[in-house]
């Protein structure tokens, strides 16, 4: 299946310019055309995302990413159901063996309600019931997803603020179960994210070849 990212924004590990070290964000089609070593269309229509650990990052972190983001924000009440569905393969992982692979993010805040990780071969979840909750509640969605294994990960959120994160690999499925967001999230604006976001800070001694690579072979974003 051909994965279309032309209507998405891609956060890259490439600096805006030689004088501005902040990570460049650009349209998916532009990212494919301008940075094929970072965002690449494969022969089967899949998209490969690459994020070396040492590279450009946002102003608030020292962690790199190659991550897609929706261009239009939404509220819980804007649709009955909100879906973020990816089929993906992590082909390389950083030295910490931990990357964010999917998020339900909130505009204007660094503490999203839902953050999904590939963490040393397991799919794990950080969930914040309340807006601006200091620390998420962490849980494991699915164990035994190896590097190189093709898996499915999805985030489903309802207009009532019920969240369910699921993952499937090699015929085995796992689920977070229904998690309830409280009313503090109701007025907030959200967008789904996906791809790879390294969960290790880079330093001057970070090896040049450290980093993460994923292949997204299916991507579906639905609000209805």
Automatic annotation (TrEMBL):
The entry's keywords: Lyase
SUPFAM superfamilies the UniProt entry points to: Concanavalin A-like lectins/glucanases (SSF49899)
Domain Alginate lyase span(s) in chain numbering: 3-223
GO molecular function: lyase activity
InterPro entries with a match to the protein in the record: Alginate_lyase_2, ConA-like_dom_sf
Protein name stated in the entry: Alginate lyase
Organism: Pseudomonas monteilii
